[in-house]
């Protein structure tokens, strides 16, 4: 993997160098990791990212998970992508509070739910995950700044979000995200697919921190300008 922008442009980045290139500058820190095609699609065939990501993307994807204290993902994305429990806490974000089938029965504390007071499936989530693993943040919608504060209070100040597009949009709109890690794979898919953000318009300026390349795949770190 070649460094295009960042420390030592033109140099090759081995695993140790990648760890350094993706180190967070401070904590608490919320980074979001997303993949897309050259023509802007966040998914490919079947409506999942697995049909567009590649070895370079997987390499950074795995690295970001290793660096994180906790992984946050929208419940709909977790359901569509077939998430199973991870080797670190996984927090589902859902206004309805519904736990995806493949995440039910997880070891206590490995899967948490972030939802709101009026969630349709709040009682069920508490029964499945344990009341202490259901974070009620907000009344009719999930309060993302409050969620960030709740995770930090538990000692998880390295927060990685893996989407989906609506959650990324809301994290940006509410000033919660500090960084976007984006992978652009060298493929065109056409069709009707979501972008990496979805929802009402936002205007969030970004600053390019690092840009890497491998076989045409571009991997970037974008910092949110405050």
Short descriptors:
alpha/beta; globular; 6 helices; Dihydrofolate Reductase, subunit A; 26% strand; 226 residues
Question: What does it look like?
Answer:
With 226 residues, the chain is an alpha/beta fold. Helices cover 24% and strands 26% of the residues. It has a single domain, classed as 3-Layer(aba) Sandwich (Dihydrofolate Reductase, subunit A), CATH 3.40.430.10. The protein contains six helices and ten strands. The model has no long low-confidence stretch (mean pLDDT 97).
- Report the top-level CATH class: Alpha Beta
Work out the oligomeric state of the chains in this entry: single chain
Structural class: alpha/beta
Please tally the β strands and state the result.
Answer: 10
- How would you sum up the global shape? globular
Strand-and-helix sequence, N→C? EHEHEHEEHEHEHEEE
Q: Say what the CATH topology is.
A: Dihydrofolate Reductase, subunit A
Mean pLDDT: 97
> Number of DSSP helices?
6
Supply Rg: 17 Å
- Poorly predicted tracts of residues: none
């Amino acid at each position: 993997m070649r460094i295009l922008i960042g420390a030592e442009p033109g140099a090759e980045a081995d695993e140790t160098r990648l760890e350094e290139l993706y180190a967070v500058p401070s904590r608490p820190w919320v980074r979001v990791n997303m993949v897309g095609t050259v023509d802007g699609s966040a998914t490919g065939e079947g409506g999942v990212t697995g049909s567009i990501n590649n070895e370079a993307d997987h390499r950074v994807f795995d690295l970001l998970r290793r660096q994180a204290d906790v992984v946050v993902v929208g419940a709909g994305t977790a359901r569509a992508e077939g998430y199973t429990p991870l080797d670190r806490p996984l927090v589902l974000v859902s206004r309805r509070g519904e736990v995806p089938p493949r995440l039910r029965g997880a070891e206590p504390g490995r899967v948490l739910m972030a939802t709101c007071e009026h969630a349709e499936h709040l009682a069920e989530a508490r029964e499945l995950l344990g009341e202490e693993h259901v974070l009620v943040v907000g009344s009719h919608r999930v309060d993302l700044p409050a969620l960030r504060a709740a995770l930090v209070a538990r000692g998880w100040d390295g927060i990685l979000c893996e989407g989906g597009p609506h959650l990324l949009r809301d994290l940006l709109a509410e000033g919660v995200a500090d960084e976007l890690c984006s992978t652009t794979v060298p493929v065109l898919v056409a069709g009707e697919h979501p972008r990496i953000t979805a929802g009402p318009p936002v205007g969030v300026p970004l600053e390019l921190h690092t840009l890497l390349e491998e076989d045409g795949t571009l991997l970037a770190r974008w910092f949110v300008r405050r």
